[in-house]
Amino acid sequence: MMSNIHGIIGYTITPFGANGEGLDLPALGQSIDRLIDSGVHAIAPLGSTGEGAYLSDAEWDQVAEFSIKHVAKRVPTIVSVSDLTTAKAIRRARFAEAHGADVVMVLPASYWKLSDAEILAHYRAIGDSIGVPIMLYNNPATSGTDMSVELILRIVNGVENVTMVKESTGDIQRMHKLQLLGESQVPFYNGCNPLALEAFAAGAKGWCTAAPNLIPQLNLDLYAASLAGDLDRARELFYRQLPLLDFILKGGLPATIKAGLCQTGLEVGDPRLPVFPLSEAGQGQLQAILKTLR
Amino acid sequence: MMSNIHGIIGYTITPFGANGEGLDLPALGQSIDRLIDSGVHAIAPLGSTGEGAYLSDAEWDQVAEFSIKHVAKRVPTIVSVSDLTTAKAIRRARFAEAHGADVVMVLPASYWKLSDAEILAHYRAIGDSIGVPIMLYNNPATSGTDMSVELILRIVNGVENVTMVKESTGDIQRMHKLQLLGESQVPFYNGCNPLALEAFAAGAKGWCTAAPNLIPQLNLDLYAASLAGDLDRARELFYRQLPLLDFILKGGLPATIKAGLCQTGLEVGDPRLPVFPLSEAGQGQLQAILKTLR
Amino acid sequence: MMSNIHGIIGYTITPFGANGEGLDLPALGQSIDRLIDSGVHAIAPLGSTGEGAYLSDAEWDQVAEFSIKHVAKRVPTIVSVSDLTTAKAIRRARFAEAHGADVVMVLPASYWKLSDAEILAHYRAIGDSIGVPIMLYNNPATSGTDMSVELILRIVNGVENVTMVKESTGDIQRMHKLQLLGESQVPFYNGCNPLALEAFAAGAKGWCTAAPNLIPQLNLDLYAASLAGDLDRARELFYRQLPLLDFILKGGLPATIKAGLCQTGLEVGDPRLPVFPLSEAGQGQLQAILKTLR
Amino acid sequence: MMSNIHGIIGYTITPFGANGEGLDLPALGQSIDRLIDSGVHAIAPLGSTGEGAYLSDAEWDQVAEFSIKHVAKRVPTIVSVSDLTTAKAIRRARFAEAHGADVVMVLPASYWKLSDAEILAHYRAIGDSIGVPIMLYNNPATSGTDMSVELILRIVNGVENVTMVKESTGDIQRMHKLQLLGESQVPFYNGCNPLALEAFAAGAKGWCTAAPNLIPQLNLDLYAASLAGDLDRARELFYRQLPLLDFILKGGLPATIKAGLCQTGLEVGDPRLPVFPLSEAGQGQLQAILKTLR
Question: Could you tell me how many helices (H) and strands (E) chain A has, helices first?
């Protein structure tokens, strides 16, 4: 049940063919190679950036299997297996484990608001079905469910293989509370890009981000400066990359990251409708921001 | 493109077998018959109450086809066809139309926040794909997207077959604004149970509700009193049924309505996990409320 | 301790001299006479509209004393005595009572967030200091404190002379809850102008409003239609006056009501800075709205 | 117009006599001496902690004059001069300047929501009336007004002596935006205690806090570690003092700081009602927290 997930955890996009149809697995492979070659510490397919929610079950399986195989243990693979029913989330978790995932990530996706007891039972059922560690993921903006720190710790304490927490509310006080109430024993990871500096300051063990698709070295350098305890350098590195971090958050990760990959020579198609590809104006802004960072 | 949807629009549950597996179509048929026999003015399958979001595509098709056939034009059928991608929502809308739906309902379901332009394009693409009217559905609590009245009217004016609006924010000012800005030409329907009295006072043409599964006569009487302009009677009827309306909203519609149907002799199974069935304490409260209303 | 406050409760402005300096009591007297002559059922000086919070203590005393004397029991007078400290609120309450106020209104004004126990003690201390009834006033938008219905009922049950509730959250469910939990024994009054129709539908006993300074007959007719249980006429009257109600809320009551009084021939000066008088564009809009209502 | 406000800016309480009546200026003098002797870099009387809003005008003048004289230029004095009308805020600002304040702090206190133009005019009118620098203060929780970063920069650019910004929303992104849009030229200060570590990480020039009344050395050490760029030491110091920072924020600054001063031998009375003094249970918790920090 040990894992040592840390540092820069790179999220992959899911490349589609024309009109958002079909999967372009060769392009996915290239984007994974880029991330690993740049030095990221882990790969996370099928997250928000990966449009996991917009795939059919068959497509989801293909992307999971391909990604894990392609990473080939060069770094750990963390597969997002969230689904609306407990049964379907379990199926995905088992599938990911069976194909070699090192960790699975679970967001309590919901249509009907879930009670704390329902959320705990959901994590327990998934945890009981697999042997790999689970990274609990809190992101009310996409899941509609905001887990309190108290609930998160109940889950961590109650489900053996929930051993890590990804926090994406953007509220640094959650991390403080996790640190204090969790008595520094629960590793937490930051999922809010423009909070990267402060999350590391507060003790985050890693940064879950799609930014390394575009600016891996800046992301890695920020982590290194934080790990070295060099606040002045960390601050300087953070403010340099902040315009890009703000841009990809505000513009939507699939649209902005796909546009950015395309600008750097890797054609990965558009997001699936109703999500629009990045507008021409947006592409111009992105190009301008990226130019200042090279 | 004409339709005359009005009055009490009854939402159906989706009965499952043991452990939430499989569909129980005979029970679905019985629940539909009950609603129609009680006098509701329309039937709406696969909405929030119907756990549409928790079904596989194959199950969704089965429930849609069966429901439409079983209603058999005794009253209009309004099928919720929302899905996360535009392509899948179009597929469902076409399927519903092909099988005889009178109206389709569309909520702009989202994982990534949608811009106004993305939402408009989503409705346009669906509208262009079918010939039946669309009821636009605004419910930020479940969809994560809150459409402004201005956007709603842009869609109504821009997409020919979007001709009705279901408003579920619970904010009566939205209905006022629809009435004023829409120059009394856009029929709106209330989707927030504890707002039933005021929505009719403000001019709502109908009430989209799962309550008629349990208390159809009280719902119908409230509509009749409102239509007759009898405020004192409407108020009295509303406050009588309000404890039940509050209860089913607070307890979650699938769990409470399914429990209530079971208490009145129709076994329809439990909601799908992670949604819990109604607790024993809740069942006791529900029985007590229902007892006072008979 | 009896009182029979009901119907249209007209809020007065506080006229100032040039540059917001000094009080113009003759103009205040004229505005009070207009309201009473138009038929309002009570007069409420020193509320939000009356810029009570922007007066010095000496000015506050002058306005309170003058208003009560000028009304001269033609209708009941309800004086807002809210202040930031309990001691100062008690002083104002006693002053108002000593000068003949029929009712005092108390908002739990706060700088530091107050606990439920602090709010209850505040009302108790004021209640114990006077003999006239208190109208409890909930308006989180101006006071920063939102009292739950449960707290409101604890105060009503625990402080003998708190006998009425003015609700200004704009959330109709608060009134429902007051009606159900209060077992129809706690009279409530609506303080949110664009909720006038629905508040009466839900059983509000009165409407606290500055609108009668400008459109008294429409306000009174809406109340009469509601009292008569005539929903269709109430709805028609409400939608006619709604543009004016929206306008004065959105534009700020002191600025819009003062501008409107000026347009109808009663010069009452400007609000005190930093609050701006109504802009020229706003004055044009207001004139246009008022024109359609005559 | 130069000023070099930085580091730990200590907020003073306002000691009252029995029952919250009268001022205890000797105790105020002692609390000021304690703060200066402990090494704070500036003294700020009449802020939120100082219950400035709860004082009569005469009391406010006394406290301002006494505080400035007692500090006697040992460190800079920053006097909060906020008031509800522009005229009264100007009077206070002039009074403070005339008695030797180095800086005045202005929160756009409001009863009626203020527009951006009204807020800008308020700051301009105050700025034009005095010669000392103004620290703009954003704290929607107490003022009811949330100034956007864009508005803050318009004020800073438009009013010559508004040269510093105190940010108390607790949202670190505001500081990022001030830094980026202000092109690193607008010094900002943190007013949210549990954000102290991250604000320094993000480049805050100082920390406005009442905590040095109780734990000055820890506050000063955190500032020193941040200034030295030593992230590991800053983090360690921050987490040590965080329970105290959380406690004083959650319990209300006047109640908790006054209780803490009393526990350390300086009797300063209770807050003014309706604000309660710290409960006995709270006093026990505070004592326990303080014990671990000595």
Answer: 12, 8
**Mutation for D interface: A190, A192, A205, A235, most D CBs within 10 A:** A235
Which residues are within 8 A (CB) of D62 and not within 5 positions of it... i.e. 6 or more apart? D23, D25
Can you tell me whether residue A287 is helix, strand or coil? Answer: helix
Q: A270: phi > 0 → left, psi -120 to 50 → alpha, else beta; which?
A: beta
Q: With cut-offs at 50, 70 and 90, classify the pLDDT of residue D1.
A: very low
pLDDT for the residue A139 = 95
DSSP state of A52: G
Contact criterion met (CB below 8 Å) for B190 and B201: no
Closest CA to B291 of B226, B250, B243: B243
* Amino acid letter for position A202: A
Asked if D243 and D221 count as a contact pair (C-beta separation under 8 A), the reply is: no
Query: Per-residue pLDDT tens for A115-153?
Result: 999 999 999 999 999 999 999 999 999 888 999 999 999
Query: CA-CA distance, D99 to C213, in Å (whole number)?
Result: 46
Query: Which amino acid, A11?
Result: Y
What was the pLDDT predicted at A267? 97
Among candidates B180, B195, B234 on the partner chain, residue whose Cβ is nearest the Cβ of C243: B180
Contact: C203, B235; criterion CB under 8 Å: yes
CB contact (8 A) between residue B230 and residue C229: yes
Chains in contact with chain D (at least 3 beta-carbon pairs closer than 8 A) = A, C
Give the model's pLDDT for residue B144.
87
Q: Which three-class secondary structure state does DSSP give residue D162?
A: strand
Residues across chain C: 294
Token reading at D194:
């549990």
Compute the residue count for chain D: 294
Assess whether the previous peptide bond of D274 is cis (omega < 30° from 0). Answer: yes
User: In whole angstroms, what is the distance from residue B117 CA to residue B134 CA?
Assistant: 18
R_g (Cα) of chain A, nearest Å = 18
Separation between Cα atoms, residue A42 and residue C101, nearest integer Å: 73
What long-range pairs does B255-261 form, CB within 8 A, spacing at least 24? Answer: B255/B282, B256/B282, B256/B286, B257/B13, B257/B49, B257/B210, B257/B213, B257/B214, B258/B13, B258/B15, B259/B283, B259/B286, B260/B213, B260/B214, B260/B286, B260/B290, B261/B13, B261/B31, B261/B213, B261/B214
Alpha-carbon distance of A43 to A37, in angstroms, equals: 12
Distance (Å, whole) CA B182 – CA B175: 10
The ipTM of this complex is: 0.96
Task: Kindly tell me if the per-residue pLDDT of D2 is higher than 80.
Answer: no
Rounded to two decimals, the pTM is 0.96
Give the burial string for C224-239 (b: 16+ CB within 10 Å, else e).
Answer: bbbeeebbebbbebbb
Helix (H) or strand (E) holding D232: helix D231-251
* Distance separating alpha carbons of residues C152 and C145, to the nearest angstrom: 12
Confidence at C3, pLDDT banded by 50, 70, 90: low
Q: In this structure, what are the phi and psi dihedrals at residue A153, rounded to the nearest 5 degrees?
A: -70, -35
Distance CA(A38)–CA(A31), nearest Å, equals: 11
Q: Look at phi and psi of residue C73 and say left if phi exceeds 0, alpha if psi is from -120 to 50, else beta.
A: left
CB pairs under 8 A between C and D: 93
